[in-house]
Amino acid sequence: MPKHHQMIILGSGPAGSTAAIYAARADLKPVVFEGIQPGGQLTITTEVENFPGYVDGIMGPELVDIFKRQAERFGAEYLTEEIIEADLSQRPFKLKSYTDDYTCDALIIATGASARWLGIPSEQKYMGHGVSACATCDGFFFKDKPIAVVGGGDSAMEEAVFLTKFASKVTIIHRRDELRASKIMQEKAKENPKIEFALSCVIDEVIGADDPPHVTAAKLKNVKDGSEFDLPVDGIFMGIGHIPNSKVFGGQLDMDNNGYIITRGKSTSTSVPGVFACGDVQDSVYRQAISAAGSGCMAAIDAERFLEG
Ligand code: NAP
């Protein structure tokens, strides 16, 4: 027999946990599936300085832990499980984890987004051996070594600045000659004496050696003049954006071309009544912890009204 819950929330980042706080306070006894990365992307970030209420900033993992404890205080239950199959064709909705079957009357999807990769074979080969998408997790391994960060957005600037704590030099590799990052983040990177820029450049290949596998350089191509050169680095960090974690619901919910779940109007309603989406899995524009938390609150209120109706 599947285990039935009135409300299931998938994902435990700011969106999922905020939904859990509101739903638990509405006595809906929400069960939160923590997913593949419990706490979400904030757990691999460093200091969060723009979440209201923390004058001096707070570390990402500490912030998600506070969200979780707050939700648990009102009775939300967290499961260290991941949903791998979903059937949203009828109510109650059916969900499957690696170990159990579940059903629920209302579902809140807050599965977030995951790091994007370049998709070249050599990147795959050296993943975990010098190629990383998590500066916080892996920066420490590159003490006094030259490294590269790929991307021109806020994530790339933030990672580059953070990595200067360890690295001897950080080169930001960006495919255009103009950065996408906000002015303040650009300034922070440009002012840092350890940071250099390789603009209008793309990585053609990650060059490395074996026994043990490690990265030695990035083969770069200048997209303007076609010239190629090797940039000697020990590590390459990807900061090129994210992909929404919506695959499980493919073909069942309306999504845009990039896989972001489409929500209706000002609500968190999806194309299936009773299924709500919040946070980065439905937001390709703002993608902030605070906007994710706000949409988590909306999803819980929308789901509560749906269940009452
Ligand atoms: P983003 O803004 O989408 O930037 C991704 C960057 O990667 C862009 O510069 C893009 O180049 C580049 N890129 C994408 N695919 C690529 C590929 N295949 N090869 C090479 N380069 C590629 O993503 P993000 O930096 O992760 O930021 C996401 C959101 O989070 C933004 O709203 C940002 O403001 C926010 N954020 C805020 C903070 C903060 O305030 N502290 C920190 C991190 C993130 P193009 O520019 O050419 O498209």
UniProtKB/TrEMBL annotation:
Q: How is the cofactor bound?
A: Binds 1 FAD per subunit.
Q: Where is the signal peptide?
A: none
What GO MF terms are annotated?
thioredoxin-disulfide reductase (NADPH) activity
Q: What's the Enzyme Commission number for this chain?
A: 1.8.1.9
SUPFAM superfamilies hit by this protein = FAD/NAD(P)-binding domain
One GO location term (cellular component): cytoplasm
Cofactor(s) the protein requires to work: FAD
Gene Ontology terms: biological process? removal of superoxide radicals
**Which reaction is this enzyme known to catalyze?**
[thioredoxin]-dithiol + NADP(+) = [thioredoxin]-disulfide + NADPH + H(+)
Fetch the Pfam families from UniProt. Answer: Pyr_redox_2 (PF07992)
Domain FAD/NAD(P)-binding span(s) in chain numbering? 6-296
Assigned keywords, A-Z: Disulfide bond, FAD, Flavoprotein, NADP, Oxidoreductase, Redox-active center
State the oligomer form and interacting partners: Homodimer.
Family the entry assigns? Belongs to the class-II pyridine nucleotide-disulfide oxidoreductase family.
* Name of this protein: Thioredoxin reductase
Organism, per UniProt?
candidate division LCP-89 bacterium B3_LCP
Q: What is the lineage of its organism?
A: Bacteria, Pseudomonadati, Bacteria division LCP-89
